[in-house]
Amino acid sequence: MPYRYRMLGLLFLLSIITYLDRVCISVAGTRMQDELAISPQMWGWVVGAFTISYAAFEIPAGVWGDKYGPRNILTRIVLWWSAFTAMTGAVSNYGILLAVRFFFGAGEAGAYPNISASVSRWFPSQERARAVGITWMASRLGGAISPLLVVPIQQAYGWRATFYIFGVVGVLWCIWWWSYYRDNPRDKAGVSEEELNLIGAPKTAAAHHSLPWALVLRNSNFWTILLMYHTYCWGSYFYQSWLHTYLQRGRGFTEDEMRLWSTLPFLIGACGNLTGGLLSDLLSRKYGLLIGRRIIGSAGLGMAGLFMLTTTQTAS
Length: 316
Hints:
Elements: H1 3-27, H2 29-36, H3 40-68, H4 70-88, H5 94-108, H6 111-122, H7 128-157, H8 159-180, H9 193-199, H10 213-216, H11 220-241, H12 243-250, H13 255-261, H14 263-287, H15 289-312
């Protein structure tokens, strides 16, 4: 197996773990709200604390990845968030929970920018969309797996046990990542010269340069991408943070029913990520990057918005 696919396997597992840990608190949400006497408004700040710190530390963590390499930074990121995942299981009141989730978000920030940096180092440009699509597919699988794992664990051992277990899983991934991954493919023993030439791996690591912000901020594509991703996250974060509480409290599903139905958006999303990456690369080769990268995203997000609106009108 080519070594770039082995590295993609590590990133695939990381992406699953990322969403296991993110969605875990949403699945356990109703039990946590009941035990810690948290109202829906207060719960909004619990999930919001993660998002605020995640946003604040996203750029610094990306800068560190460019400067020190994904091997170092992803190890730091996953160790940090694994520690605060475990700490979530030990909280005793609302204030401590807010603080723990804030630091959890700060630690997890930069995970996907550094995953993308790893893909850019190990994959040629014509394969990157499918590689990124596979990592995002893994995130959706993590979201789908989370209720299937969390509900049985918390029914047997309580909601706190799930956070302890998932924290240990992250540490085990770090050990594997640090021992196996290399930032420059040429530093990895066993990679053939043929694969190195296909990847376009540099002879030495590129020097870190500051981002020319004045130039970037004048780029219309940059602002378009920011606007697209901002509006995408309005819908996406509902599924991560509120879906499981909504199904139980808003729609009257039992915990076991919620476990099954809440997997569907993530499973279908996983299929969409994989096929979207493959189609984007295919269209890019046939019609150019502008068409290949734009059509899939526009069609996908347009359909997502339409069906989300339709869902609000569904009584059954």
